[in-house]
Amino acid sequence: MTTTEPQHDACPSGTPTPSTASAALRLPLSAGFFSTEVAAHLGLSRFVLLGFAASIAANVLLSAALLFKTPPQTVVVVPPEAGFSGDMGVSLQTAYRVDENGPDARLLERTAMTLIQMIATVTPETGRTQIARFLEHVDPEVASKLEVRLLRELKSLTEDHAASVFYPLEAKTERRAMTVTVTGRQKLVLGTKVVTDAKKSWRLRFRHAAGRLFLTGVEEASAD
Asked: Which residue, 2, 68, 137, 214, is most buried by CB atoms nearer than 10 A?
């Protein structure tokens, strides 16, 4: 008589069947996917994983910094026509930029060169007109004092029947301080005779507001 012994599974208890193992591999990716065991299985070192994580963290920080960084503001300034063209021989019909470092150095220099010509190259006939044009670009807080000073100098020039001529040679600009020092030859003319001819420097100070430059002061500086 043949006895049929009960058949047992070939796989011991607790060992997953192929279908179970296959199902485990099909699980969705989770936060623990890159575990040490899986990394070893894929041949990846812990150093590579740490470097990868550090790279991601650096990219996230950089993105956040760029996102919250305040972009620099730039203002385009188009100088007014009055006082910047015509008999002065200088045209400023060009757009200049004003950024976090202040007004464009070219704008400061050319404005200073033009304004100093208005009050340093004067005749008794043109003096009042030029002073009026000059004051259009002066800070209102100092305009009255400057006007009194310029009219007093014009009166003296008129009484002597003289004319003043200034020939600018160079300009040094300090952009952040918004100051320009213009150096040139200052001549005093009586009739057709030049009675004085000297090197002279003028320092002009500005402030910027509402897209415009305002002169806040002008004074004689050392010409050395």
From this structure: 137
What's the average model confidence in pLDDT over 151-179? Answer: 94
Cα–Cα distance measured from residue 76 to residue 89, given in angstroms and rounded to the nearest whole number: 23
Burial of 154 (0-12, 13-18, 19+ CB in 10 A): buried
pLDDT at position 159, please? Answer: 93
Q: Are 46 and 53 in contact (CB under 8 A)?
A: no
- Angle at which helix 105-120 crosses helix 127-135, to 10 degrees, equals 150
Residues listed for the chain: 224
Residues sharing a CB contact under 8 Å with residue 91, sequence separation 6 or more, in sequence order: 84, 85
Average pLDDT of the chain to the nearest whole number: 75
* CA 150 – CA 152 distance, rounded (Å): 5
End-to-end CA, the chain = 132
DSSP 131-188: HHHHHTTB-HHHHHHHHHHHHHHHHHHHHTTEEEEEEEEEEEEETTTTEEEEEEEEEE
Q: What is the mean pLDDT of residues 46-71?
A: 63
H/E stretch holding 117 reads helix 105-120
- Give φ, ψ of 94 to 5 degrees: -140, 145
